[in-house]
Amino acid sequence: MKLLIIDGHNYLFRSYYGVPPQKRDGGPHLVYTFLSSLRRMVDTLNPTHLAIVFDSETGTAVKKGVREEYKATRQEHDNEVFVQKKVLDAVLKKIGIFTLEHADYEGDDVIGSLAVQCAQKGLNINIASADFDFSQLVNEQISLIREHKGVYDIVTPQRIKERFGIQPIQYVDYISLKGDNSDNIKGIKGVGPKVARQLIDRWGSLETLLENCDYLPEKWARLFENEQERIISVRNFLRINSALALLPESSQAFEFSHQSLMTPTRYIIDSI
Fold it and tell me: In this structure, are residues 173 and 65 in contact, taking their beta carbons and an 8 Å threshold?
């Protein structure tokens, strides 16, 4: 059995902003684009089970409360996105697609918990998202699916090794050292991807690196010693929480009807 977990907000914004501004009025174009992407994914990846996870406004606010710089550089979205999302929510419910949006947790943690816990129950997992933060979850059962112009790139442990020079389990340590510009999280000053990769390759983990600062050149040793507490805090912040108790009682909750999903969107909307 294969569970496809979709990063709902990722595809929500892609569906809305992927259409030219002059074509965004006059109807829920987001719903048509979102469902078109969903159908294409299902046709290509052939999942037996399906779940779509959305960020809640309050869940994201909780994380921003921990680190106020988190995502502070991101632009505000058009309110129309969330107006059309209400229509999308109703459509997904109508056709029996499992969706989850938790008031207390960001979508990444919800996705991580579903992925890891369902994998433990024997399901193979595909996470559809453009966010490389999910690389930390990738293993033989969990893959990251990144889409570009209708082509699906399946990110496996080997692909992560080829791209970043590290193992998936080392991804959070790596990103903590070099920083994450997309989320406005600063790493160690002067440490870019190449240096971060070299440090992780030599020491294996952030903890081991910090325990051996004395073996680094003097300027690096002082910098790492001064930044030790902050960088550990950053690493813990960036680690996806996969232990949330969110699983449905049965995997049947993730089952879906291909026939219902393929019903023309206008008929679904008209029937709501």
Answer: no
Tens of pLDDT along 238-261? 999 999 999 998 889 999 999 999
User: How many whole angstroms from its chain centre is CA 123?
Assistant: 19
Domains in the chain: boundaries: 2-157+244-265, 165-238
- The residue ranking higher by pLDDT, 102 or 75, is 102
Distance, in Å, from the CA atom of 188 to the CA atom of 262, rounded to the nearest integer, reads 49
Query: Given this structure, which CATH class describes domain 165-238?
Result: mainly alpha
Q: Is 191 helix (H, G, I), strand (E, B) or coil?
A: coil
The CA distance from 189 to 176, in Å, is 11
> Three-class SS of residue 214?
helix
C-alpha 58: how far from chain center: 17
Distance CA(40)–CA(14), nearest Å, equals 15
| Token pair 């947790």: residue | 105
- What is the CATH number that goes with domain 2-157+244-265? 3.40.50.1010
Percent pLDDT > 90 in the chain is 65
